[in-house]
Each structure stands twice: as C-alpha cells, then as structure tokens.
Amino acid sequence: MQTLETLKRKIASTQELQTVAKTMKALAAANIRQYEQAANALQHYRQTLAMGIQILRMNYPDTLTHVRPSAHHRLGMVIFGSDQGMCGRFNEQLSEVVIQHLEQHSSQGEQPLLLGMGARICDRIMDQGYAIERYLPVPTSVDGITSKVQTIVVQLKKWRALCQVDQIWVFHNHPISGHTSTPHQQQIFPLEVDLERPSSWPTRCRPMVFLSRERLFSAIFRQHFFVALYQACAESLASENASRLTSMQLAQTNIAEHLTELQAAFQQQRQTKITEELLDIVSGFEALNQPH
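-> structure tokens emitted (292 positions)
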C-alpha cells in the first residue's frame, strides 16, 4: 500500500505534467493557424502559375513536349518530418510510405538520394538501413521556411549537376479535415503537366507574352519548384502541430483521470490514518479509566 507521502509526491508530479500538456496544447493550437495561413496563401499563387503554364502552352505549344515521362537514371527524395515528439503517428505514418517507395526502387537496383527535414523521421528511415544524404532541422516559425527551402533548392541543384538526379519527389503529411493528416507525395521534377488537357483560354481576351520561350519557361519552372517545396513544408508543419494538439488533448484527459484516482486514494489513506489515530486515542483513554 502506498504511503501518504508517496501519494502526495505522485499528485504533485501529475499536476506538473498536466500543466506541461496544457502549455503544449496551447502552443500547438497557436502554431496551426500561422502554418495553415501560409499554405492556403500559396494555393492562389499556384493557380496563377497554372495559368502561366497554360499561357506558355498557347503561345509556344512545343515547349513542354520534353517533359513527357521518360526513363530516368536516379531519383531524389525530399522528406518533411519533425524534430520533436509527442505528435502521435505523424512520423511513423510518413516513414512507412517512404520506406515502401525505397524498397520498391531498391528492388529495381536504384538507390535514391534522400534529403530529410526532421531528426525523428530521419532516424526511422536510417533504422531501416537507408542513408540520409542531407539532414536539415525543422524551422520553428513561418519566417524560417524560406531559408530552409532555399537550402533544399541549392542541394537539389547539386544533385542534378553532380549525381545525375533527373526525378525529384517530395513526401510530407497533408492536413485533412479536423486535426488529422495523411501522407502525401508529389513529383516536382520533371514538371508534371497534363498535356492531354486543352490549352484554350476561358475568355476571348487572350493574354499577351513579351518574354521569349526560354525565359518564360524558366521563370515559371523556378517559381513552381520553390512554391511546391514551400507549400509542402508549411503543410507538414501544420499537420505536425495538429497531431500534437490531438495527442495533448488525449494526454490531458488521461492525466485528469489519473489525477482523480490519485486524489481519491490520498483522501482514503488520509481518512484511514485519521480513523486509526482516533481509535488509538479512544483506546488509550479507556485504558487509563480502567480500575487498577
């Protein structure tokens, strides 16, 4: 049976844990909003880029024919995970999808190059025997996303130039309804364009182009490349905080139930001790009053 002092220490520790869970829950709830706004803001810009590609196809129909799928030599993967824990299956569910793709490509005799953001997901992938060529820490705010994405772009350019990487995939968790997320993958190089889709313009006022074909294609591709990575990073951070918020809500409920049990046990122990002390006093009083 636990003593009163032991129960008192456990109650104090549980209350501290409850405060930590409450603080982490508040931080996660505050962070979700800023990352969701960053990701949603890019949706409109991506629509503008899609219109730019349509304009390119209208004015230079042969420009995008070389982006049709072809036999590639090497694959590069960019994986967005987390540095911190307490976010449920956030890293686990994404690492399962990544490892499944790695096993598929390894069986074909290819060894993709991996760039991982987040120590926890990198550890999971390395535990399965795959090397992470480049690790980056996760940005702690929206302001830090741009510099991280620029670093990724520079690294991918090196892979393109030195390692003949001619196909690049991005893996990240994509937020869905509520506080849940699902693994998502997308090809950002070569540029995926639906060439079967008609390139007609929805209005009679067709936009004019003053740039050459090469400059227009290069400008659209650079923006598409950067925006795809930025949006993946922002969505990953929003999903991480949503998963942490859900985990902290569950933890807070479990801690409250455990605290209630400890406090009930403490009250019972305290009442038992008081009863024993009263019985000792009564027994002593009766012993003193007995005739000798």
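The longest helix spans residues 213-289.
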